[in-house]
Design a protein that fits this description.
86 residues; two-stranded antiparallel sheet; 3 helices
């Protein structure tokens, strides 16, 4: 993962999983990949767990802080050649 482990939110178990690798930059990704592929036997023996599953809409709502807001006024699309009212 090219990310900060603090970004896993409620899925803290991902931080300590042996099959998830954290990197801060591309050089670290290259180093991790070189070590992993240096011994195919060790790589093949590494246990891999299924990631926690959350439905995509729920994840997107968490990430973007989505809240359903009722539309109470008219929306006007102001396009030079077309003008629509929604």
């Amino acid at each position: 993962m090219l990310a900060n482990p603090a970004l896993v939110g409620p899925h803290r178990e991902l931080v300590s999983r042996p099959d998830v690798f954290w990197a801060k930059n591309m050089e670290q990704i290259e180093t991790i990949a070189e070590k992993l592929f240096a011994d195919p036997v060790v790589l093949g023996a590494m246990p891999v767990d299924l990631p926690p599953y959350e439905p995509l809409p729920k994840l997107l709502k968490q990430v973007f802080g989505y809240q359903r807001v009722p539309v109470t006024s008219e929306v006007v699309l102001n396009i030079p050649s077309i003008q629509h009212r929604l």
